[in-house]
Write a structure and sequence with these properties.
By secondary structure, the protein is an alpha+beta fold. 18% of the residues lie in helices and 32% in strands. The chain has six helices and 17 strands. The protein has a six-stranded mixed sheet. Strands 4, 11, 12, 15, 16 and 17 form a six-stranded mixed sheet that branches. Strands 8-5-14 form a three-stranded antiparallel sheet. The relative contact order is 0.27.
């Protein structure tokens, strides 16, 4: 798992890829996939510590299926599904942690989202899941619980834009390189966590839990000099 963090030159995240999640945040439905970046330094491998909540931040969780790229991908045609899927080396479960108040301010003011997405520990990831464990990444159940109460549970079959389309849109803008991570969007049920909460997350294939995909991580106070203030 440490190698995922070491080898990821970028983490590309698809936004608004589940209809019910769009509705719960009162966002507009996109006409095509759009994406933003998280720094690889935000990746939190399993058992390497807690998620750290910066002072003044309304911290939200978003469980997602992550793709780990195994081949360089540039200028992909969305119709070339074989090339798209062949470029994926494996998978992981991820939690895209978000400073929601910072993101809401950025959206209101037309500013970048980096401050809302990029803090250290803001991307807990599971262990690497070999590609053979997930025959169809569009038929996986993602779930997330807070203090063992289920908050998110939905099928990746609900994605608005399937993986080949997502990879095509990204690769027509920037080259995806071996080791890069792509987050495919979150289903409904996102919400806040507080210091002391414990998040668990994972995925099921045909109703069976994939052990490598399990995450369990506590939320603690970040400390340090940062405190959220409006820009």
């Amino acid at each position: 798992m440490d190698s995922i963090k070491a080898n990821a030159r970028k983490v590309v995240c698809i936004g608004r890829n589940y209809a019910d999640h769009i509705k719960e945040l009162n966002n507009a439905r996109p006409k095509k996939p759009f994406f933003f970046l998280k720094p690889p330094s935000s990746i939190l491998p399993p058992a390497t510590g807690p998620v750290l909540r910066p002072a003044g931040v309304n911290l939200h969780y978003e469980v997602e299926l992550a793709l780990v790229m195994g081949k360089k991908l540039r200028d992909l045609d969305q119709k070339d599904e074989k090339r798209a899927m062949d470029a994926i080396e494996g998978y992981a479960v991820s939690i895209d942690m978000t400073a929601r108040n910072a993101q809401d301010e950025a959206k209101r003011k037309g500013l970048p989202w980096s401050i809302a997405k990029g803090f250290d520990t803001f991307l807990p990831m599971s262990n690497y899941i070999h590609k053979g464990k997930i025959r169809d990444p569009h038929d996986v159940e993602l779930w997330l619980s807070v203090n063992w109460e289920t908050r998110q549970k939905d099928s990746t079959g609900l994605m608005l834009f399937r993986i080949p389309r997502v990879l095509a849109e990204i690769s027509q803008c920037m080259t995806l390189e071996q080791g890069d991570v792509v987050l495919t969007g979150t289903p409904k049920g996102v919400g806040s966590v507080a210091v002391g909460d414990v998040m668990t997350a994972g995925l099921r294939v045909d109703g069976e839990e994939v052990e490598e995909g399990r995450i369990e991580v506590e939320v603690k106070e970040k400390g340090g000099l940062y405190e959220y203030q409006e820009t």
